[in-house]
């Protein structure tokens, strides 16, 4: 397969996954806007803490199983039944263990609001863990259509259930329950074809042991993001108040949705293909896939940083409303940088450890980074509030990303992101100018009404078109193949 065809497949699959995730991201954005208004700062703060706790528990207990599936399943493409059966059995055991430990703790709580929120969070852990494994199976099997359907169903049903319950009682219990129900329904609806072949299959415990040794350290890489999120929200709630934690969480969620959407889509499109090539002994071809991933990742990161830097005030006002935008807007450019660093580390730099089977290094990086983040939060939050939490996250992720880049090169030399930096300078500058000029041309839009949303949508669309055209025009991704120069004329 030629390099041009591989690059085209990567971009095509990335946009295939991104199509569904764009819809999911749009629904998430709408949910964020509606939940922030319905719950208020304190209610959204409780919701954010519950989601962070559920996410951390999911990563700590279940994430290794999803990562092991992503690594082991490509080698079993012809007969995946044994591994899928093993995955389902292990998930059942882990789910029962979480129920046995978590339910007594949750039911012991005196506050009925916290008790109901805890039960919903446990349901979300079970649903999210199964849904994550399912998405990895769809990605490895190269089923972007079914992947799109799963994420669309989950997002739409989660919003419907959450809003229905909020209409009865404005409680953080409602959106958490919505996410749990949406994930479970989407999994059951789209699981038939990818998971068939379990009948007659045998459990692969020996393969599971090897996969566990490989995957659980990698889960710690994802846990860093969860630990940073959890420590930020818990410490802000304790030292600055739940309302401050709510404003911080709203800003972090707003930036995180878009960044995870783009960078994770690139990883989902490229990483399974690179692993298959490496398993087949085609290291040079795999390196070409990583080269394409580096270019697309950097282009997405540049657009995200510029977009949130220029549009933070408009985004916060239009999406979060009057109750939270004043707290969130100053934090959003910095939280966007944090999220971009997290995405680059998790979805690109840490791939070196995956390929090199050196996941133990991730353990050391993650533990050191988590300890540093907690220490910096304890130092800076009491004096600086949400600004201290942002600074702690930024310093932590910058150091962790540098460590992953430096140490990862010992195991697999991924193409350098910074080598392509010059290619996105001009497109990034044109994007910034477009995002600044278009709202001025359309006129001011105060408040959170339809005009504000219209101007924001037109500005974003115009910026995306200009940025894509600039990338194409400068050939930043190598999308335009150069034509050979004509040879000398022949004749008498």
List the helices and strands and how they pair.
Layout: H1 3-61, H2 63-72, H3 81-108, H4 112-140, H5 144-168, H6 173-190, H7 205-239, H8 242-279, H9 283-320, H10 325-328, H11 332-349, H12 351-355, H13 360-384, H14 386-408, H15 425-442, H16 450-473
Written description of the protein model:
The protein is mostly helical and 492 residues long. The protein has 2 domains: 3-416, no CATH class; 423-478. It has 16 helices and no strands. It has helices spanning 3-61, 63-72, 81-108, 112-140, 144-168, 173-190, 205-239, 242-279, 283-320, 325-328, 332-349, 351-355, 360-384, 386-408, 425-442, 450-473. The protein is globular, with a radius of gyration of 23 Å.
* H/E element order: HHHHHHHHHHHHHHHH
* Domain module tally: 2
Give the C-alpha Rg: 23 Å
Biggest sheet architecture: none
Q: Could you tell me how far the N terminus lies from the C terminus, measured between alpha carbons in angstroms? A: 41 Å
Average predicted local confidence, pLDDT: 82
Count of alpha/pi helices: 16
The general outline is globular
């Amino acid at each position: 397969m030629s390099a041009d065809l591989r690059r085209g497949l990567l971009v095509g699959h990335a946009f295939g996954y991104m199509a569904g995730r764009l819809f999911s991201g749009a629904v998430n954005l709408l949910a964020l806007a509606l939940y922030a208004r319905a719950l208020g700062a304190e209610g959204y703060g409780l919701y954010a803490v519950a989601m962070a706790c559920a996410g951390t528990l999911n990563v700590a207990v279940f994430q290794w199983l999803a990562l092991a599936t992503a690594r082991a399943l490509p080698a079993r493409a012809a007969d995946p039944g044994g591994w899928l059966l093993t995955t389902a059995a292990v998930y059942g055991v882990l789910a029962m263990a979480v129920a046995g430990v978590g339910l007594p703790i949750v039911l012991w709580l005196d506050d009925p609001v916290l008790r109901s929120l805890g039960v919903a969070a446990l349901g979300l852990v079970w649903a999210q863990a199964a849904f994550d494994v399912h998405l990895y199976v769809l990605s490895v099997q190269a089923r972007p259509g079914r992947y799109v359907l799963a994420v669309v169903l989950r997002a739409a049903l989660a919003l419907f259930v959450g809003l229905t319950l909020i209409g009865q009682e404005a409680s953080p219990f409602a959106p958490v329950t919505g996410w749990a129900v949406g994930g479970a329904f989407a999994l059951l609806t789209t699981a038939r074809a990818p998971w068939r072949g379990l009948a007659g299959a045998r459990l692969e415990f020996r393969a599971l042991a090897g996969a566990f040794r490989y995957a659980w350290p990698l889960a710690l890489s994802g846990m860093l993001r969860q630990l940073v999120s959890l420590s930020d929200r818990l410490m802000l709630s304790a030292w600055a108040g739940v309302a401050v934690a709510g404003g911080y969480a709203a800003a972090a969620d707003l930036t995180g949705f878009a960044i995870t959407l783009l960078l994770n889509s690139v990883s989902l499109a490229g990483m399974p293909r690179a692993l298959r090539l490496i398993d087949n002994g085609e290291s040079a071809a795999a390196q070409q896939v990583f080269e394409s991933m580096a270019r697309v990742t950097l282009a997405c990161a540049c657009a995200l940083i510029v977009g949130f830097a220029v549009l933070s005030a408009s985004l916060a006002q239009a999406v979060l409303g009057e109750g939270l935008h004043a707290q969130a807007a100053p934090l959003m450019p910095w939280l966007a940088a944090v999220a971009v660093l997290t995405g680059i580390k998790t979805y690109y730099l840490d791939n070196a450890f995956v390929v090199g089977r050196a996941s133990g290094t991730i353990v050391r990086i993650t533990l050191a980074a988590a300890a540093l983040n907690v220490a910096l939060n304890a130092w800076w939050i009491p004096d600086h509030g949400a600004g201290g939490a942002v600074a702690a996250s930024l310093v932590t992720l910058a150091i962790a990303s540098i460590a992953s880049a430096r140490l990862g090169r010992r195991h697999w030399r991924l193409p350098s992101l910074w080598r392509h930096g010059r290619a996105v300078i001009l497109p990034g500058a044109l994007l910034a100018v477009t995002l600044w000029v278009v709202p001025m041309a359309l006129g001011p839009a105060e408040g959170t009404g339809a005009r504000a949303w219209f101007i924001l949508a037109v500005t974003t669309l115009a910026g995306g078109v200009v940025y894509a055209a600039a990338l194409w025009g400068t050939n930043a991704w190598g999308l335009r193949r150069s034509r050979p120069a004509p040879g000398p004329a022949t004749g008498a």
